[in-house]
Amino acid sequence: MQYDVVGIGNALVDVIAHAEDTFIGEHGLVKGSMTLIETERAVELYRALGSAVEMSGGSAANTMCGVASFGGTAAYIGKVDGDDLGVTFGHDMLAVGVHFVGPRPQDDIPTGRCIIVVTPDAQRTMNTYLGVSSLLSPSDIDEQIVANGKVLYMEGYLFDRPEAKEAFRKAASIAHANDRLVSLTLSDSFCVHRHRPDFTSLVSDEVDILFGNEDELLSLYEVSSFDDAVEALRAHDTLAAITRGAAGSVVVTADEVIPIAAERAIRVLDTTGAGDLYASGFLYGITHGLTLSQCGRLGSIAAAEVINHVGPRPLDELNSLLPTEE
Amino acid sequence: MQYDVVGIGNALVDVIAHAEDTFIGEHGLVKGSMTLIETERAVELYRALGSAVEMSGGSAANTMCGVASFGGTAAYIGKVDGDDLGVTFGHDMLAVGVHFVGPRPQDDIPTGRCIIVVTPDAQRTMNTYLGVSSLLSPSDIDEQIVANGKVLYMEGYLFDRPEAKEAFRKAASIAHANDRLVSLTLSDSFCVHRHRPDFTSLVSDEVDILFGNEDELLSLYEVSSFDDAVEALRAHDTLAAITRGAAGSVVVTADEVIPIAAERAIRVLDTTGAGDLYASGFLYGITHGLTLSQCGRLGSIAAAEVINHVGPRPLDELNSLLPTEE
Question: From B292's CA, which of A13, A86, B130, B172 has a CA 20 to 30 Å away?
Fold first, then answer.
């Protein structure tokens, strides 16, 4: 089986609840960011949280679901347990046709979860208890699957654990050895801050396609203006797609900077998954021979779909949203 | 602690997915109804189902959450396991302030779940795997809690298991011994069909407030016209609130029949929980000294809120939707 995209990341189920802005302050959360939390903190936060909805998530997993929803082929590598959440995660991957090797009960470590607090401004604040997803290691990287994907897509989040970082490096070298493209999402500006030297060397040496948002790019190059960050990026021969929220996105190459308009969302209810789905549209485009501008537009379309409802994955079939004139 | 309403029912987590009408036919489902399923069938259906969302459900549990959301006090008796779904269920009850004795791991029987298929017409078709919820027995009925509730509210679904039926009867006699009101929801027209003799004798002898929809009432009295069903009902001294979908509802007493308009929903996305939430508004009204017509209106308001989004429990605080002029 050939895949358009093979994704690797932290396999998580999202626990999503709405809260007022005061909740963010009272619980010492950093609005809009992703924070890693341990068991005790997860229990404490969950206890304080209002009624929640459980939906499969995980950044790269969301992206793979988006690729499949556009009609592309995708595989995913990530770890879940055989508990209820793990079964849910596995089901939801197979349900959209993403190749995924299902839950394997492991040392009684539960499936990871991401407690997401959505404030009235539709911004999401994420608190991740990694659970078994953090055990991803080089031995989990299936060489055949990575070799069979036109593009390898990996989360910056993987750098938060040494073993997962090794898995990342192993996958990247398999991909390159097979003439495949390697793509990376910067994941989160705090994540970039934690791993800046690693990320800058990755971007200049190993990454063929870079995804990130404006904040993450500013953090990567430690600059304060977007134009400066774009200039820094252009010094490398890396294709990049950088999202800017309501301002749309830009596609950056050594030769050009292509602005992409944001697709108009009917309502903005929950921004969870916006970046993940943007990447799915872009990757679907890249693997289907579209122009960079068309790739960016598919990213915008997918992001607009996912912010229009609660949850990090598309509810509509993205394939039905493909522009007819392209 | 005194409660406005004490609810007893099958404690379930809903697994909700959208599907086309063809899915209903292909899998031999009965559209709009609730069917009890065993493990094998649950696994088979779940496998066929698209991406799903997990949210706490259970008919009487939804109603108790509605009562709490209106600002009333509520307690709930039902059984969950200590697995992920059970923990989720317990969290979501406490999160809205419903008194609930949380998960107790029991003989490795999993928390019950209801696989709900929502078709494009917003109709829901329910397939219930009862799991540990079916072990509800008389020993689970906490005499003090039932005695402390102004109204006891129970699901007709409880009659599907002999032990739960005994629990139902025990709770009803505790309530009456303490001069409390006993209310029943007919749950489902097939459920009424299964237990017609029990339900008719309950309605004439033990039930003070009856909830149901038009189909369930027609099935109860084996008549084909709504007017005939209402006449049959009026022969007993039972207060009844009967919902009629978009046509609103009627409140029936021995002396009068009060029509209640449906509250206009912005959109109708998923009718799951409409009846449960109608009951919550009515019960909140009854326990707060409102007129029958006002009680019905609160029922309509709560039902309109819940059909406007996916999931069986309110997302808005129902208290904020209370009419100001009343």
Answer: B172
